[in-house]
Structures are given as C-alpha cells and as structure tokens.
Amino acid sequence: MNLPRAPKKATKSDRILVFAEGRAATAAKAAGADFVGGTELIDDVVSGKIHATLVLATPTLVRAIAPKLGRVLGPKGLMPAERRGTVVDDPATYITNLKGSNQWAGDKRGTIRSAIGRASGVHLCLLQK
C-alpha cells in the first residue's frame, strides 16, 4: 500500500549499489542507481569508498560477491539475498518500484507496528469550575 506521505521525517534518498553487467547494468544506471558495476566494485565497498543504503545484485554476480562481501555487508543488513528480493534479474524494474515507496518489515508473527501519520498542533484543554 502506498501512503501519500511518509509517517516519519523525510530521510535522505537511497544510495543504490547494483552489481550487474551488460544490459542490466545500463538499465540500472538509467533507472537511477548511484553505483553500477561488476566485481571491480568489491574493493571499493570493502575499503569504505562506496557507502550504499541498498545493494542489489544479479544472480550471476551474487555468487562472486558473496564470499568477499558477506562479512562487510552482512552485519549491516545490506547483503543481497533472494529471500529479501534483492537478487533480481532486472534491477531497473526494482529501482523504479522503489522510488516513492517505503519498505516495511514485520515481526515473527507478521505484525507490523509503525506510525501511519502525524498530527501537529493538538491542544488539550482542562476546564475547572
């Protein structure tokens, strides 16, 4: 469900890193990815030159990056994984769907707890006799 406004303060836009080659790489760059490349980006991520808030990978490259980036991106929750949906054949479609949306996560039972809006200027008045 898309809400008209985010319930929290607006955060900085996502910095998207895509591990892809060929047509998928050019399509991801055109869709708005900040960093696009193959295995040559691994050293930049490990050294800290590239800071991303979302990491996507194609299925062919995820096997190449997993052994080297698992210890760096894993603790941050950024490692691409199929069950999270960040290993995709077409990263451009994922990036297009991501623009203007929020990601939600539930607890073990599937319950989502979050604010759905804000109210400002609410005043309470106490009346005395």
Overall pLDDT score: 78
The CATH topology of the domain at 16-98 is Rossmann fold
The spatial strand order of the largest sheet comes to 2-1-3
Corresponding CATH architecture of the domain at 16-98: 3-Layer(aba) Sandwich
What is the CATH superfamily classification of the domain at 16-98? Ribosomal protein L1/L10, domain II
Radius of gyration: 19 Å
Relative helix content: 25-40%
Q: Write the H/E string, N to C.
A: EHEHEHH
Number of strands: 3
Oligomer: single chain
The end-to-end span amounts to 48 Å
Question: Given the helix and strand composition, which structural class is it?
Answer: alpha/beta
| Helical run tally | 4
Apparent shape: globular
Low-confidence stretches: 123-127
Major pleated sheet? 3 strands, parallel
| CATH class label of the domain at 16-98 | Alpha Beta
Could you walk me through the main structural features you see in this protein, from its secondary elements to its overall organization?
The protein is of the alpha/beta class and 129 residues long. The protein has a domain at 16-98: Ribosomal protein L1/L10, domain II (Rossmann fold), CATH 3.40.50. Helix content is 29%, strand content 9%. The protein is built from four helices and three strands, in the order E-H-E-H-E-H-H. The protein has helices at residues 23-31, 42-47, 59-73, 91-98, and strands at 16-19, 35-37, 54-57. A three-stranded parallel sheet has the order 2-1-3. Helix 1 (23-31) runs parallel beside helix 4. The chain is globular, with a radius of gyration of 19 Å. It starts with 15 loop residues before the first strand and ends in a 31-residue tail after the last helix.
